[in-house]
Structures
1.
Amino acid sequence: MNKSALLVGSAVLASSFSTAVLARDGISVVGSSTVYPFATVVAERFGKTTDFNTPRIEATGSGGGFKLFCSGIGVQTPDITNASRRMKTSEFDSCLANGVTDIVEVLIGFDGIAVANSINSTQFDMGTKELYLALAKMVPNPANEEELIENPYQQWSEINPDLPAIDIEVLGPPPTSGTRDAFVELAMEGGCEQFPAIKSLEKDEFKAVCHTMREDGVYVEAGENDNLIVQKLEANPNALGIFGFSFLEQNSDKVQSSIIDGFTADFDSIADGDYNISRPLYFYVKAQHVGTVPGIEEYLAEFTSEQAWGEDGYLADKGMIPLGDEQRSEVGTAVSTLEKLILD
Amino acid sequence: MSSLDQKASSSATTERVKASLRKRYAAEKRFKLYGIVAISASIAFLFLLMGSIISKGLPAFSQTYVNLNVSLSAEQLDIDPTATDSELRRANFSGVIKQAMRDRFPDVSKRRDKKALYSLISTGAEYDLYDRIVADRSLIGQNVNLWLIADDELSAIVKSKSDLSAPDSIVTRLTDQQVGWAKNLQDAGDVDVRFNRTFFVNGDSREPELAGIKAALMGSAFTLLITFTLSFPIAVASAIYLEEFAPQNRWTDIVEVNINNLAAVPSIVFGLLGLAVFINFFHLPRSAPIVGGIVLSLMTLPTIIISSRAALKAVPPSIREAARGLGASPLQVVTHHVLPLAMPGILTGTIIGLAQALGETAPLLMIGMVAFIVDIPTSVTDAATVLPVQVFLWADSPERAFLEKTSAAIMVLLVFLILMNAIAVMLRKRFERRW
């Protein structure tokens, strides 16, 4: 029994070590968990409609994706990384240092972050300023805007008399989430900037004031799972939730988007740039792998085809906000010629 | 002291003893009661958990189909009748299905409405058509009645057995118009709910109605195969050496303490080790069961070693002495007598270790096995994922129909675990010997 098990084990090991050296036969994609639901749809279609293997896609987060992507050239490194923000110069430099010199940047569309509550309660109509005042740890003293105080607000009506007189309770993602990063940068900073006293602060101080959420139990970190937030909103009509637009789309019978600065989170308002809490989605391709790993060019072609990222494409059905016609054709051409990314 | 005094004091003692006895009995009764309450509470929780998983997961085992009359002319499919299989992939299957839907509901004319109509049929129907035509070329040019997979939203309202004639009472993302079409199809007998075979033969998918468990199941099987083939022989060999041959000195003490410590190391640490050593240094492929298996075997090794040593220790010394007395060499004592007697215990420990490995996700995160895998892995070097990871990925998906898939995947995982534990019990029953 022992002997045969040993034999089988060594045989399996030997065979796997010999095949491991061979080239990879499918595309490897890493990166943002926000792009993951869209990239996986394209990958699945690509696998089913071509003779290539279906690309495998890992959700490592944007930062983790860049780290893996920039770790070098060769089949043990990923070919593509997804990101819910643009590549930073520091990341680009680390790519260059490791020999990843030919990078193609593809802007694929936009994602909105919804602030929503149960469909059975009244819709909120507010701005990023109110969101900041409701959620930040330090806010300007209403009596003297120069002075920062611990957030005193307990009810929405204290911030703005037009808002309902209910306790502030907001469920949102924890700091590890990309959605949280984007929310803080877009909504909280947007609200912050409307106070001249804060805007004139030093960069570090400005960030500390605008990016710190309050910790007195009003903002509830509800975990990375957006489905959970939707379920909790259903059970608690007084709470607001913060989550990705695709979850709003999929649960439009249970939750409604709040009006932020005059617009609800919907398809058109995000595409036109009217809705303030939205972010661009990218992916980056290692052009040096084209030709070594089969199918990269075809995968790019599928991703940038009208039936995928077009206005009526299947990515739009999944909740991604497509680019405008002009921008689409611009990015499309750059992709088909594998235009090299230059960041400085 | 008079005898009267003695009597009085003895009766007082009896009283005291009696009182304390009552207290002791009461305490014992209370203790038993606590135990029963604790057990019934845990059983109640278990039932609650299982009940909620099963009731949520059961709908995932049925799949809704819609009957449509599809015209498969070469012209509409936009192909040459002699096309090769890979040329066939590019045929206009979606156009054919859309045409069939338009024929079924001829009065739908607005572009928006048409789109809503088409969304009732799953995109999987296109791949299904392709498979059917590849299997039977004579279908090209024919008009056939086909049962096509319905979209998850339609499937949800059909499976919930809601009253489709009252769209307001149904919680769904479908519009009243779409519910009306569903009602029309249902009244004509063109909607059918069948056993969901897809769930057991497909890999992952972003469409809930097409998502299946097989890729994860195969991934788990390959990973466990590697884990077993590596950890079992190594663990048993080290247990035998430590228990039967090793001298008692400081070195073996250090080894023993370290094995016990390793058993308590958080599993994510093994994932980091796997990333640094097996992927970055040995260049083994990312996301492959081979690396997952090696990492998990590192994790299960201490568990198996500790339980194997306990099993070896439980074999009475008289058996070793008798064998030696009859002239057996130390190796013969171990292989002929001690090991066969300890085997049931060793196997139980192994299976418990493997069951633990089956439920593990944390170490796999670092080595890329938390990934979207559609193709079913066929070897230990193919990209794969495992059952608990699949549960996690589905639980995190926005489409609501994945909720039932999540519970169904948990059920599959539990069945696997129960099977493994049943094997452990069976082996123990079969080989157990008493002395």
2.
Amino acid sequence: MTAVETKPARGAPPPLKHDEAASGRASRPRGKRRLGPGKSIPLGYLIGPLLLLGVWIWGSAQGWIDPRILTAPWTVVETAWDLWESGRLGPDLLVSARRFALGLTFGVLAGLVLAIVSGLSRWGEAVVDGPVQIKRSIPNLALLPLLLLWFGIDERMKIITIALGVLIPIYIHTHNGLRSIDGRYAELAETLRLNHAAFLGRVVLPGALPGFFLGMRFAVTSSWLSLVVVEQVNATSGIGYMMLLAGTYGQTDIIIVGLVLYALLGLVSDTVVRIVQRRVLSWRRTLED
Amino acid sequence: MSLIRHAVAAEDAARVPGAVVLTDVVKRYGRGPGAVTALDGVSLNVAPGSFTCLVGASGCGKSTLLSLVAGLDELSAGSIDNVERPVAMMFQESALFPWLTVSGNVELALRVKGVGRAERRQRAAELLDTVRLNGFAHKRPHELSGGMRQRVALARALAQDASVLLMDEPFGALDAMTRDILHDELERIWRERELTVLFVTHNVREAVRLGDRVVLLSSRPGRVLNVYDVGLDRPRRIDSAPVAGLAAEITDALREEVSRHAG
């Protein structure tokens, strides 16, 4: 009985016409393209960054890029190795990574809680939404003097600054995702007599996940950006401090090492978010797949 | 059988589980001169274990009526008595949570009632078996055809274990063949479980194929125009002559009603 309803599997080719089958071509006429972006390219996300790296290597080797303006890639690798060998890079990297992770964690938690409060209750929205929008329009750099006064110059201040930057995209996108949940799902939840906890856990949170992950991608990058700011304004350790110090001595190669590290860390964390996103949101059918 | 059922007085019927009695139900939206009256004095006795179909032109308030019985919306006047709340409800679309598996969707209805995990799984498997979907427990809704999705929605409605099942054009988006098969399934399940079904559709033949009674509603405001007793033997076929004959009669009345509003 069920067989009657079973659709052909998605992506299964339509039956081949005789002449096409003979020539081994796909059944779609040549020249006719699909409107979607097509099949995904394995490791395709690496192509852009690798192209950029290629231009850098090629340009430096050809002598088009003056090493005083932009250090050659091999010098950067050498410098990074020297820094690592001499024990200067490792501890700084560790300190930066810790700040990043803590700031991100607290920021995501705060952003999530605020988004849920403001998304599920009109009163919550009335209280929470305005201040978040205000914070959004104030750059972290402008807040820094105040944060310094309030929280001192230690780790606490740095983590709070990062968290403040992170919670904004998490809040905006989760809130938006939550409010875009199909109203029918809420109606359905009502007919199923779901209680608040079940509604939150089974309907609201999964429904808001696409928004949350978009926010997460902004949040991860924002976390690295804030890190640069706090480490360059007032710090005695971390990658940013290392770059600041190098700047005063005119050590371009060390600055580039710092920049490359930031770039790598940013790319890696964005990739991690995207991989997790794809696995968690496997129930969606979008152009992405 | 159905004659005896209908003879039961409203007061008595309301005390039997599965009965739904609507008395002078009025539903208005908005206030003042811009107010719209969706339903105006609808009275209806739905006997326990009966299959009642509501038909009418679009905008006649059929779906509003179901929302009111389900308690999703509030009455403006009148009363609805049904001994057993909650009722189970089934929609046309967006009826499954896409992030849950087939089994998860069915289990959700059981989780609310505090059924333990192992038993939930077991009962969900049985219900999926009832709607002939065994083997699909771990699929996601987007991997299923429209007909299979509605089977899951039906299984979930059954999981609520309510004696009243409200269906809002549940097969409206399906092709004729699939719909035909699901009519047989629904009829079988309705009889096995002795459910009271209130079924909204704009498809008059579907109403005659399934219903003990077909209630014809007028448009804007919605009132009961006529109630047809479908005295045809079951199982029926949607393309049989008696079904088509009664459907034609109801369709004529419906067309007259629609053209009166258009003119």
